[in-house]
Specification:
Helix content: 40-55%
Number of domains: 2
Radius of gyration: 23 Å
Number of helices: 12
Strand order of the largest sheet: 1-2-3
Strand content: under 5%
CATH class of the largest domain: Mainly Alpha
CATH superfamily of the largest domain: Intergrase catalytic core
Length: about 325
């Protein structure tokens, strides 16, 4: 496969991904990785067959631009999947992306909330926030902390996804376009109900319109409900950072994804079984939950436990 054939196959592959139940986010991720590799190939005049050395050169070029190692790894994983598909489609005989050449995962340092800070975020209504949307923002933060849903999952919620009788929320399009049910505890139900009754969400909207959003125009001015946009990813991030900073005193707040870690820390502290945590988070396996969350979240707790045991044994 030369670069001309690669560019044609790239288009076919991306066009076929939605029919294999890949989410829009996943399709965008694959398209970005393949496009970047195509741009790298197009920077050379030669149009010979794509070889493993070309992939190594691509990896080196990405690294030299300062792209994070984990991002480079994801690009190569997506590229490897594409060439595996190309082999099945008889467009190429061998995969030029050698698994040994894919960088190892770098350990991510998470910006975690302590249990007292999580408690503050659940119980404190911060001062200095815009009063009109205060009930909406509090409902969002508590729901993130109690349900563990992702940024995109929360932004995609609709009132029809909420079951107040069964105390559950249906996440219709989770990561990998998977469907699951998550917890909808009493405090979350109370705050969401107060938000829906507050008038912040325009009364003319239906149960199939976005649950959380804004009626602001392009200049950020309220339209008094004439329009309704769901939050952007960055919009939710900015709101969460400000809210958590004012609740906890934590400088610059935290990322939305850190609230998912906070939910997991809270469940773990209360003794929720790891299998239940896995299902609530929407992970494919328990090992992923343990590797990604429990290890990270328990590091500080493990040190505290060992300190307590040793200090107690020595009478300190």
């Amino acid at each position: 496969m030369n670069k001309t054939e690669y560019n044609e196959a790239h288009k076919l592959y991306v066009a076929a991904l939605p029919s294999s139940k890949k989410s829009a986010h996943t399709v965008k991720s694959y398209d970005l990785a393949l496009r970047k590799f195509g741009e790298y190939l197009n920077s050379f005049e030669q149009n010979g067959d794509i070889l493993p050395i070309n992939v190594v050169g691509f990896r080196t070029a990405l690294y030299n631009t300062g792209i994070k190692s984990n991002t480079v790894k994801q690009y190569l994983i997506n590229l490897h999947a594409f060439f595996e598909w190309a082999i099945r489609m008889k467009k190429i005989k061998e995969n030029p992306v050698q698994l040994e050449e894919i960088p190892k995962q770098e350990l991510i340092t998470y910006d975690l909330l302590s249990l007292p800070q999580i408690q503050a975020a659940l119980t404190v209504t911060p001062k200095g926030i815009f009063s009109k949307t205060a009930c909406r923002n509090r409902a969002i933060i508590v729901l993130l902390l109690q349900s563990g849903v992702r940024n995109a999952e929360l932004r995609s919620l609709k009132p029809s996804d909420l079951d107040f009788e069964r105390c559950t929320i249906t996440v219709s399009h989770g990561k990998g376009d998977k469907r699951r049910e998550v917890a909808f505890p009493a405090l979350s139900r109370q705050l969401v109900k107060e938000y829906l009754e507050s008038g912040v969400r325009p009364a003319h909207l239906t149960d199939d319109d976005w649950l959380f959003g804004t009626d602001a125009d392009e200049r950020g001015h309220s339209t008094n409900g004439r329009v309704w946009h769901r939050f952007s990813s960055n919009g939710l991030l900015s709101m969460a950072r400000r809210y958590i900073a004012r609740c906890t005193g934590k400088e610059n707040g935290v990322k939305v994804h850190s609230l998912r870690h906070a939910a997991t820390a809270l469940w773990d502290d209360l003794g929720v079984p790891i299998r239940t945590v896995q299902q609530a988070l929407g992970h494919a396996s328990v090992s992923l939950t343990e590797k990604t969350y429990t290890y990270v979240l328990r590091k500080e707790k493990n040190a505290e436990l060992i300190n307590n045991v040793l200090d107690g044994a020595l009478g300190v």
